[in-house]
Automatic annotation (TrEMBL):
Gene3D superfamilies: Metal-dependent hydrolases (3.20.20.140). Pfam families: TatD_DNase. It comes from Electrophorus electricus (Electric eel). CDD domains: TatD_DNAse. This is TatD DNase domain containing 3. Keywords: Hydrolase, Metal-binding. The keyword tRNA-binding does not apply. It comes from the Eukaryota. A divalent metal cation 1 binds at residues 8, 10, 103, 213. Belongs to the metallo-dependent hydrolases superfamily. TatD-type hydrolase family. A divalent metal cation 2 binds at residues 143, 166. GO terms for molecular function: hydrolase activity, acting on ester bonds; metal ion binding.
Length: 269
């Protein structure tokens, strides 16, 4: 049986605390061979690492500082360089265990940042983490909300060669710039209700990966998403491009292994 790789998943989210074992079992039953567990802030790093140790060869840790910070979801703020202070020692500590740096990126949603200074702070945090990724020879797992063009342009300016643009919300023309830079784009289950369906039509399969962004971006709004829903992403791509599902699984898994080469070291085949 061909198997999936979930390239972007928040498996350490509190939403999964009560039934994590069942969520993992259901993920494996759905055909997932590995999922990349991304972190958003330093306080989450140890939990991601612990889950990777609890489910070795399946949960792959990815550590980074998200562009949106603030523990209260009602009062989000843009990331600051100070947010990296506690993250850097942990990234160094676990550098042999992580498969990428992320979730990193830019988020220019007005309620998050409404000034040039706030945007510049996010840029500096991304620049620093891109430097770390380059030093460790790791890819970036990238968030870009309301900032598709600035994100891709900055990645290119920094000479980033290996990046995954997750749940990209920018224009197709901007995505094409990322395509030409060699970047990959991962498609979540929410694609079935998304305005970004044109991306799937126009981006070649060779630049697509699969993700769930669990517990967010599921097929239904306000309903907890799970890794097992990755099949929805794959089926949508297959239907849209008029190709067999098996081809989508084969190519997207190949893409993930190419983008995240350390997966081959850890995955139990």
């Amino acid at each position: 049986m061909q198997r999936y790789i979930d390239c972007h998943c928040h498996i350490s989210a509190t939403d999964f605390d009560d039934d994590i074992d069942d969520v993992i079992v259901q993920s494996q039953k759905a055909g997932i061979m590995a999922l990349i567990g991304v972190a958003e802030h330093a306080g989450e790093f140890e939990k991601v690492i612990q889950l990777s140790q609890r489910f070795p060869g399946f949960v792959m840790p990815c550590l980074g500082v998200h562009p949106v910070q603030g523990r209260d979801p009602a009062c989000p703020r843009g990331a600051l360089l100070e947010d990296l202070d506690s993250a850097l020692p942990l990234i160094e500590k676990y550098k042999e265990h992580i498969v990428a740096i992320g979730e990193v990126g830019l988020d220019f949603t007005p309620r998050v940042v409404n000034s040039d200074a706030g945007k510049e702070s996010q840029r500096q945090v991304l620049i620093r983490q891109a430097e770390i990724a380059k030093h460790l020879n790791l890819p970036l797992n990238v968030h870009s909300r309301s900032a598709g063009r600035p994100t891709i342009h900055l990645l290119k300016e920094l000479g980033v060669e290996n990046a995954l643009l997750h749940a990209f919300d920018g224009k197709t023309s901007v995505a094409m710039e990322g395509l030409h830079a060699g970047y990959y784009f991962s498609i979540p289950p929410s694609i079935i209700r998304s305005e970004q369906q044109k991306l799937v039509k126009q981006l070649p399969l060779e630049n697509l990966c699969l993700e769930t962004d669990s517990p967010a971006l599921g097929p239904e709004k306000q309903v907890r998403n799970e890794p097992r829903n990755i099949v929805i992403s794959a089926e949508y791509i297959a239907q849209t491009k008029g190709i067999p599902l098996e081809k989508v699984i084969e190519v997207t898994t190949h893409n993930a292994l190419r983008l995240f080469p350390k997966l081959k070291t850890f995955i139990k085949v």
